[in-house]
Write a structure and sequence with these properties.
The chain is an alpha/beta fold. It is built from 21 helices and 18 strands. It has a six-stranded mixed β-sheet, with helices on both faces. A six-stranded mixed β-sheet has the order 14-15-16-12-17-18.
Length: 637
């Protein structure tokens, strides 16, 4: 188990944890929550052995294998599937040793290593790696592409696949859903539900946490508090605790005020001085309860548009795609003020293509797009974070689009996005992904859009900012199209769902829960279609003939398999005999003069047994080689 006792953890002058305690049992799945800078990533580093406690203790079993999702990629020339396989370091070590043994022509060592490879499930490793990549949205062709050919978000998917590929007893995942779309998240949920080890997960996706974890570890006030249940249960339980804390705080404040008035009134009177001193000491001993600070640092809204058009957009019989390659065809849509639409669809179906086309950054292949006279688009996409001026501050970014506004008004607006004081004047260069996303949203909110086109706006945003964005979108008066993997955001801010699939855009009449089932059926149909295509491509063989051929093959293989099995049994018996001899030779009394004859006899048996084991291993290897060669010949025929 993971056991943290009286732990103090400090990074530089900042104390992250103080006298913290936590116990996690094997197989438990827990979400790790806390504000930015609370110490979540440092706790991960502590569990990986990269940090040591400043006080207290953090212990976990010495033989536990730990896997974690890396945040960087070093070798850009590796093929994607090879990079994922690199996550299984033991597999790679066995493969290196096999290559050495083959080069040095060491048959005995080869037999041992192949047995170890089979025990490690190494023969299916390539298939498992490709399955992971497919689940995370990679095509078969992308599995063979260089890591350096992928964008930053897809590289993070490769890091996630590599972490999942590693056999582990403890899996540490830091924001694994940040760069995933909804169908990849649903696949990851299923994978993590079946994971047998201990899971510690940092995430700001409440639906994902509810689906995967059964405990929440909350980092707050330099303590670790364990809550039972998923995120929704954590919110309810914590709200109740904070309510009780607030009531206790208010009651204590009233007691303190009463005692202070008594002290001030009677301290100078000799007859009452002793009672006053007693109350003063009680006041000093009283544990100071803090008020429940639950207010979010974020409080903003989208400024109301000056004018509206109806409709805002009208797309007629359009073909959408890239460089002449059609992705969506016969698209018809009309957006009126107040429309609130969530876009669903499997990975690669064309959701971002639709958003980019409506935003004007991707030209139509065919069809017609009409825009309203007063259309004002607010477009958020991940590439916009990279387009921010790294040398400019949030204040300068906003001043560039609002040069006539007073600085204090700009500062007040940025404060709603938690850019206060000097932070509003610092260059964006060293900002985190979450801070850049907040700034991009601030620039959109300032410009008074009447149509929001939002493509994954919650990437990098923490729980508090996601909540503030949800409230702002609920109060937004204009129209909105939203692509997001955050199901809570879709559920709370949209009135209608559209589905992008099979090259078409259609209205989706069901809810998000039904979409999860639809997506599972869609995947199954895609897999079945692939299997049907493969079977159609293969020549058809009469079933009766197939059974006869299979029987003939088994008959030809049987003698070789029987010989290999017999040699394996003999080898096991010889190894058992060798173990008994070595146990006897370990007796120290055997080396006295009185037992010299017995020692000589055992040493002779040891030499004979070692020679027999070597001979049997060579015969076993020859038998297996012959068996595999015949199997290959039969498969080709």
């Amino acid at each position: 188990m993971i056991k943290i006792e009286s732990l103090t953890l400090q990074r530089g002058p900042l104390r992250l944890l103080e006298n913290a305690n936590l116990t996690l049992h094997p197989g438990q799945k827990a979400g790790l929550l806390g504000t930015n800078g609370a110490g979540k990533s440092s706790l991960f580093a502590l569990l990986r052995g990269e940090l040591t406690p400043d006080a207290g203790d953090c212990s976990l079993p010495a033989d536990w294998r730990i896997s974690h999702m890396r945040q960087e990629i070093e070798n850009l020339d590796r093929l994607a599937v090879d990079y994922v396989l690199d996550g299984d370091q033991r597999l790679r070590a066995i493969q290196r040793q096999l290559a050495e043994a083959e080069q040095q022509q060491q048959p005995t060592r080869l037999g041992t290593l192949y047995a170890e490879l089979e025990a490690h499930d190494g023969f299916s490793a390539d298939s498992r790696a490709r399955t992971l990549l497919a689940g995370l949205g990679f095509s078969s062709a992308q599995c063979e592409a260089r890591v350096g050919d992928f964008s930053g978000g897809w590289r993070m998917r490769l890091n996630l696949a590599q972490a999942l590929m590693c056999p582990s007893d403890l899996l540490l995942l830091d924001e694994p859903t940040n760069h995933l779309d909804l169908d990849a998240i649903l696949w990851l949920e299923d994978w993590l539900k079946s994971y047998q080890g201990t899971l510690l997960l940092i995430s700001h996706d409440r639906d994902f946490l509810d689906a995967v974890v059964e405990h929440i570890v909350h980092v707050e006030s330099r303590k670790l508090t364990l809550y039972r249940g998923g995120y929704s249960q954590f919110e309810r339980t914590r709200a109740e605790r904070l309510s009780q804390q607030q009531a206790a705080f208010e009651k204590q404040q009233a007691q303190r005020e009463h005692m202070q008035k008594y002290i001030a009134r009677f301290r100078a009177q000799a007859t009452k001085a002793r009672q006053a001193q007693s109350r003063l000491k009680a006041l000093e001993r009283m544990e100071l309860l803090g008020p429940a600070h639950v207010d979010s640092p974020f409080n903003f809204s989208f400024r109301e548009a000056d004018s509206q058009s109806s409709p805002l957009l009208d797309l007629h019989d359009a073909t959408l795609g890239y460089a002449g390659t059609a992705i969506l065809q016969h698209v018809k849509l009309q957006l009126a003020p107040g429309a609130r639409i969530g876009i669903l669809g499997p990975n690669g179906a064309g959701k971002s293509t639709l958003i980019k086309t409506l935003a004007g950054s991707l030209p139509l292949i065919a069809g017609e797009l009409k825009t309203g006279e007063h259309l004002a688009i607010g477009y958020f996409a991940q590439h916009q974070l990279d387009s921010l001026d790294p040398e400019a501050s949030p204040l300068l970014h906003l001043a560039r689009i609002a040069p006539q506004q007073r600085e204090q008004e700009l500062r007040n607006f940025l404060g709603g996005f938690d850019f206060h004081g000097s932070r509003a004047e610092e260059p964006v260069l060293h900002f985190s992904g979450g801070e850049k996303a907040r700034l991009a949203l601030a620039l959109i909110a300032w410009q008074k859009p009447n149509l929001l086109l939002l493509d994954e706006p919650t990437n990098h945003l923490d729980m508090e900012m996601r909540h503030a964005l949800t409230v702002a979108l609920q109060n937004f008066e204009g129209a909105m199209l939203l692509v997001s993997h955050d199901r809570a955001l879709i559920r709370d801010t949209t009135d209608e769902l559209w589905l992008v699939a099979d090259g078409r855009l259609t209205t989706y009449a069901e809810d998000l829960d039904s979409y999860t089932r639809w997506l599972a059926q869609f995947r199954q149909q895609q897999a079945q279609a692939g299997a049907d295509n493969a079977s159609q491509a293969a020549p058809k063989v009469d079933a009766k003939v197939q059974r006869r051929l299979a029987a003939e093959q088994r008959q030809r293989l049987a003698p070789l398999k029987k010989a290999a099995d017999k040699l394996e049994q003999q080898l096991e018996a010889a190894q058992q005999q060798m173990q008994e001899i070595e146990t006897a030779l370990a007796d120290t009394e055997l080396y006295s003069d009185a037992h010299r004859g017995r020692l000589k006899e055992l040493l002779a048996k040891q030499a004979d047994c070692r020679q027999r084991i070597d001979d049997l291993e060579l015969q076993w290897l020859d038998a297996h080689e012959a068996l595999e060669q015949l199997q290959a010949e039969l498969a080709e025929s």
